[in-house]
């Protein structure tokens, strides 16, 4: 895994240096196919495999490639999705608690600033899960502020909000609606697995579930991951049965 990702990033850098725009914007197709086969082949064990990779300086490798995915929509989406697939508690701990918390947060910050909106949304999910897991310690406030800023961005760009504000031409509105549809489809794709969908559920009910059923004060960082999760549900429009546990957790 380490060798394949290192080669993938080097291919991206070489393509950019040689002016091969197409190859610089997307991960090498053959390496990507091998990575996809690995994820599929490991199945439920992939999170553990990826956690071992992260603990063995995988965070350092990913962090060293910030220059690649900050300039490439394809690379940023690939890395964000790879992290999300593996993002159970074991992988989260390996990511943030192995003595490389500075690199870990720097990596997520880079995803927040990348050119791909879908990768930024995925970064919001990753950071929301870290807030829900209680792994960020004194960095919780900073992380919550980042998630809130992303919530403001995605809400402001929603079609309903744009139509109410007015001022956009028909072509621009159509482009925006397509972008929203593409984003919704991407979120649908990364949450088809019930374990991954349940991560968002846990973020949504975290404020009261982790506070003995009581509502914490409005400054509590858990409200940030809750807000982002609820926005995701608005995009996903899941069947009521998938939200059953969330309805039970809502305070009276």
Describe the protein in words.
The chain has 252 residues and is mainly α. It folds into two domains: 1-120, no CATH class; 141-157 and 171-252, no CATH class. 75% of the residues lie in helices and 0% in strands. It contains 16 helices and no strands. The radius of gyration is 18 Å and the shape is globular. The N and C termini lie far apart (47 Å). The model is unreliable at 162-172 (pLDDT under 50).
In short:
By secondary structure, this protein is an all-alpha fold. The chain contains 16 helices and no strands.
How is this fold's topology laid out?
Layout: H1 2-17, H2 21-25, H3 29-42, H4 46-64, H5 66-69, H6 73-85, H7 89-96, H8 101-112, H9 117-133, H10 140-156, H11 159-165, H12 170-190, H13 194-204, H14 206-209, H15 222-236, H16 244-249
